[in-house]
Amino acid sequence: MEIKNILNILEKHFHNEQRTTLNSMRGEDPFKVLVGCIVSINIKDEVTNKILEELFSKVRDFNELLEMDNQELENILYLARYRKVKARTLKNISKVILEKYNGKVPNTKEELLSIKGIGPKTASVVLNFAFNKPFIPVDSNTLRIANRIGWIKTNKNEEVERLLMESLNEDMIRKANAIFMLHGKNICVPVSPFCSKCPVNKFCKKIGVEKWR
To answer: How would CATH label the architecture of 27-130?
Structure first.
């Protein structure tokens, strides 16, 4: 079955599920989306939500974030993995955007990737969620599901994004990340996926899956 058809089935299946932190930020201020993406790396949504609530109660833009005391920022990030690294990254990104882009988040992938601390996934998140552009943020869920079903045979994020974008229309490209996130979190988990509950089980080649539930 084609990728678009499987994603349509998954979208209907997860229609009433709560969105992830980043997907719930769709249409928000680009500043919040970018900061939220950096903070969320390698931590659970519950932790991300708590950190962002406190952080955004104290800073409203890159200028205020840059001026925030380093220790105070690290304290707000205390629940996050690599809090010192994330604090430095947020400060550096703020400095560059203020100096080079007049405090406005750039809206092209080339410009975003030119800023130290912003990688391909973060750039695609910002372009998709903040600017409503057709990009697919590729994370571990996207890689795992796309390879497991048998759509692709690569672990290179850029290649996965390119192949998926070639197969989907713009509307589904914008929705794809949310679908992959929900499916990867609830059913197609890394170890022993819940294949018996999967709405696309019969279309999945289960590549690399040794045991399932």
So the answer is: Orthogonal Bundle (1.10)
User: Does the structure show a pLDDT above 90 at 30?
Assistant: yes
Q: State the DSSP string of 24-80.
A: HTTTS-HHHHHHHHHHHTTS-HHHHHHHHHHHHTT--SHHHHHHS-HHHHHHHTTTS
Query: 3-class DSSP state for residue 27?
Result: coil
Q: Which pLDDT belongs to residue 16?
A: 78
Six token digits for residue 84: 């010192």
Give yes or no for a contact between 77 and 59, defined as CB atoms under 8 angstroms apart: no
Residue 79 has what pLDDT? 85
Domain ranges of the chain: 3-17+135-203, 27-130
Domain boundaries 3-17+135-203, CATH class: mainly alpha
- Whether the full predicted model's pTM is greater than 0.85, yes or no, is yes
Q: Is 159 helix (H, G, I), strand (E, B) or coil?
A: helix
